[in-house]
Amino acid sequence: MTTERLHPGSIVIGRRRRATRSTVVTLVLALLVVALFLTTLVVGERFYSLGDVFAVITGQDVPGASFTVGRLRLPRAIVGLLVGAAFGIAGMMFQGMLRNPLASPDIIGISYGSSAAAVTAIAFFDLGGAAVSPVAIVGGLVVALLIYGLSWRGGVHGSRLILVGIAVGAVLLAVIQLVLTRTEVYKAAEALRWITGSLNSAFWGDVLPLVIAMALLLPAAFALSRQLSILQLGDDLAAGLGVRPERARLLIVLVGVGLTSVATAVAGPIAFVAFLAGPISTRLLPGAPRMLPAALVGSALVLGADLVGANLLPTTFPVGVVTGAVGAPYLLWLIARSNRNGGRL
């Protein structure tokens, strides 16, 4: 048996290649997000040039564009950008922590917690508009703590938490459907956003609370990225490297749930964005979880799906319908691959 020793020079070259690839991929993703953001501002029932868009952004009065771009499209694009980033990072955190691609917040029922709370508040307590958002955030947090508590057996393990989350999500989906059958038609129409996920009702009133929440949660998520990477090495090795696994997992869950709940409170549970963003960014940049690429992929998915649903299909569809059409085949492929691999995803 022979052993091959790595030359120090080859290690340095490998690191440089990985750093270069990371920089290039991140820049390409950032340019894609910027392009989709600007396209959202330009394209619609009426086309406005980039000059008109920049004039509106800089505060100039442009007939027609000042209202359409300034009041409607710009807040919609900002909300799409931020909720996509929130879902993308939350999905990466859960999937990386549990080392399972099924462990995204929309699969394990956390998004349904926000939706069920919001729909109940609309149907039975006559809440509406911005008053529903705090209820949705609290609902997501309560359901996440419930899933975490039910999964606890001297610690939280991936497969148990996923199964408990899927079961809780199924119960919450039944609750949502039951509530909808008991409410008036006009309330059911308002509740639709909390079921499918949509940017159609995104206005400036949603932007400032979302920006403040993201300003608090994003630094916390990036601060946890090192602990997330170490947890992937296993609990014993993580403890040897100075990370307390259960404490780190609880912090990751709290921040991930916060991102999911805030995004759901603004745009509803946009299906499969959290589920897709992590695997796509990992395919582009194999190795340890990276928050920024996952955030950019999430933003690109939401902005791109919203453009398709609003402009390219014969009928206008909410963004959640389009992302669901993209994500469902990937979920089926993942399950089929699991069957071929003897249960391994």
Offer a concise description of the structure.
The chain is mainly α. It has helices at residues 8-42, 50-57, 65-98, 110-125, 132-151, 158-181, 185-191, 193-196, 204-223, 225-231, 235-240, 245-267, 273-284, 291-312, 319-340.
Instruction: Please compute the radius of gyration using only Cα atoms.
Output: 21 Å
Overall structural class, as computed from helix and strand content, comes to: mainly alpha
Question: What would the principal axes of the Cα set say about the shape?
Answer: globular
In terms of DSSP E residues, the strand content is under 5%
Determine the mean pLDDT: 84
Poorly predicted sequence stretches spanning 5 or more consecutive residues: none
Keywords summarizing the entry:
0% strand, mainly alpha, 15 helices, 345 residues
Descriptive notes:
This protein has 345 residues and is an all-alpha fold. It has 15 helices and no strands. It has helices at 8-42, 50-57, 65-98, 110-125, 132-151, 158-181, 185-191, 193-196, 204-223, 225-231, 235-240, 245-267, 273-284, 291-312, 319-340. Helix 3 packs parallel to helix 9 (204-223), helix 9 (204-223) packs antiparallel against helix 12 (245-267) and helix 14 packs across helix 15. It is globular, with a radius of gyration of 21 Å. The relative contact order is 0.15. The mean pLDDT is 84.
